[in-house]
């Protein structure tokens, strides 16, 4: 096993390039199985473990997967020989459930083992099932496996009980080859929902309204291969924005869509940081002491749940009291115990973390309890006095390509070592 060691207290300066969006890529790759003719060439894919896991699942299904470079894949799904995804890789990651919608759409049948992912709370697939059943599928769950089957898929009006990114994408994928028109209401509006819709349209789908409250899908007969580039990663960009502010740095974050980052920019400005937007870049610099703020996570365009943990680390070391209320997941404060080891003053009441800023936090041995908690530990380590050791960094590698190299290029004292 490996760990990261950070000697904190260095101000970050320079520029960093953001990779393609993890949350878009992990849905786009399963959706590529819908191409019954031609090849999908997808670039700006992040070189992360979750993507490698999906590559293996695609290969197991019978797709021909060729790596053209570190960030580009060619997927030929014309000769898929199975509608079953029941491997260890499927069980390992949450996003493998997108194969249910993709295989159901193409073959009217799918058998996919229930996936895992980060332990951040109950993550039911009831809204996915509701959507599949509305399209005409019969869904059963036996021995940890989702079995979905339909004689034919027919367009339907579907109103989601809660705003859910996963179900919005999965049912949208399933409806692309359904007969007639499907209308999805109370949908998620996240940038990666729009990106998946754009990818499907590039393959020949007819989807309108992604990014609004209502998505309309007119079923088509077939989809074919295409060339596509994944959008920049909103969450990776936000993490580097917060790291720049936390270290009183001056960092230009390149290859971003500033519109996607407005909720994060607004909070950093409220704290006293300077945020300058370019066409495809954001510069964050700090010239005066920052102050605490209150944050409440919400579906896009609200403050992203995936950014609240890194923001928590920043708020530990600024003046005043801050509140972070998590409205999406009920168990997303597991990083708090790790931050307390470093001297942070945080109390959790229900879904709210009450943070009183301290003069300094100090290095300690801490654990990345999940992907975004891992990012929070990195930021805490960058702030802390002395050495911080972060274990279980396989969680971090699921979403942040070459994280230590990027921070090192900005002036951080960070290294990856084998954990004996």
Short overview:
Helix content is 32%, strand content 27%. It has helices spanning 22-31, 49-61, 88-92, 98-107, 126-134, 165-175, 191-202, 234-246, 262-271, 305-315, 335-341, 371-383, 394-397, 403-409, and strands spanning 2-7, 13-17, 35-37, 39-43, 64-69, 72-76, 84-85, 109-113, 138-142, 145-149, 157-159, 181-185, 206-208, 214-218, 223-224, 227-229, 250-254, 274-277, 281-285, 294-296, 321-325, 345-349, 352-356, 365-367, 387-391, 413-418. The modification 2-(S-cysteinyl)pyruvic acid O-phosphothioketal is found at residue 118.
Structural write-up:
The strands form seven sheets. Strands 24-25-1-26 form a four-stranded mixed β-sheet, covered by helices on one side. It has two domains: 2-19 and 232-418, Enolpyruvate transferase domain (UDP-n-acetylglucosamine1-carboxyvinyl-transferase, Chain, Alpha-beta prism), CATH 3.65.10; 22-229, Enolpyruvate transferase domain (UDP-n-acetylglucosamine1-carboxyvinyl-transferase, Chain). 52% of the residues are buried. The chain is 32% helix and 27% strand. With 420 residues, it is of the alpha/beta class. The chain has helices at 22-31, 49-61, 88-92, 98-107, 126-134, 165-175, 191-202, 234-246, 262-271, 305-315, 335-341, 371-383, 394-397, 403-409, and strands at residues 2-7, 13-17, 35-37, 39-43, 64-69, 72-76, 84-85, 109-113, 138-142, 145-149, 157-159, 181-185, 206-208, 214-218, 223-224, 227-229, 250-254, 274-277, 281-285, 294-296, 321-325, 345-349, 352-356, 365-367, 387-391, 413-418. Mean pLDDT is 95; it is low at 117-122. The protein contains 14 helices and 26 strands.
């Amino acid at each position: 096993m490996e760990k990261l060691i950070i000697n904190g207290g260095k101000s970050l300066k320079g520029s960093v390039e953001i990779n393609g969006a993890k949350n878009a890529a992990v849905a786009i790759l399963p959706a590529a199985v819908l191409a019954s003719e031609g090849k999908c060439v997808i670039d700006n894919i992040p070189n992360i473990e979750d993507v490698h896991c999906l590559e293996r699942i695609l290969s197991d299904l019978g797709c021909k997967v060729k790596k053209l470079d570190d960030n580009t894949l060619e997927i030929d799904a014309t000769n898929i020989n199975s509608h079953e995804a029941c491997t260890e890789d499927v069980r390992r990651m949450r996003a493998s459930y997108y194969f249910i919608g993709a295989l159901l759409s193409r073959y009217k049948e799918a058998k996919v083992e229930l996936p895992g992912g980060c332990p951040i709370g109950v993550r039911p697939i009831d809204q996915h099932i509701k959507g599949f059943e509305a399209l005409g599928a019969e869904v059963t769950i036996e021995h940890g496996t989702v079995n979905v089957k339909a004689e034919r898929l027919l367009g339907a009006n579907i109103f989601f009980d809660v705003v859910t990114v996963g179900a919005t994408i999965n049912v949208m994928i399933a409806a692309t080859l359904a007969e007639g028109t499907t209308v999805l209401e109370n949908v998620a509006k996240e940038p990666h929902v729009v990106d998946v819709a754009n990818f499907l349209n590039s393959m020949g789908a007819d989807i309108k309204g992604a990014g609004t409250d209502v998505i309309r899908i007119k079923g088509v007969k077939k989809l074919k291969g295409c060339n596509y580039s994944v959008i920049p990663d909103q969450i990776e960009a936000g993490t580097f924005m917060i790291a720049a502010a936390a270290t009183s740095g001056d960092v230009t974050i390149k290859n971003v869509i500033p519109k996607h980052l407005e909720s994060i920019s607004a909070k950093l400005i409220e704290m006293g940081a300077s945020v300058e937007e370019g066409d495809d870049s954001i510069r964050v610099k700090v010239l005066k002491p920052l102050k605490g703020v209150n944050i409440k996570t919400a579906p896009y365009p609200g403050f992203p749940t995936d950014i609240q943990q890194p923001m928590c680390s920043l708020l530990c070391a600024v003046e005043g009291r801050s509140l972070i209320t998590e409205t999406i997941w009920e168990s997303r404060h597991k990083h708090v115990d790790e931050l307390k080891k470093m001297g942070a003053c945080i109390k959790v009441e229900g879904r709210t973390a009450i943070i009183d800023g301290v003069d300094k936090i100090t290095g300690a041995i801490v654990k990345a309890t999940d992907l975004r908690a891992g990012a929070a530990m990195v930021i805490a380590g960058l702030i802390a006095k002395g050495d911080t050791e972060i274990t279980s960094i396989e969680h971090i590698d699921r979403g942040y390509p070459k994280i230590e190299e990027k921070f090192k290029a900005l002036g951080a004292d960070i290294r990856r070592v084998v954990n004996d």
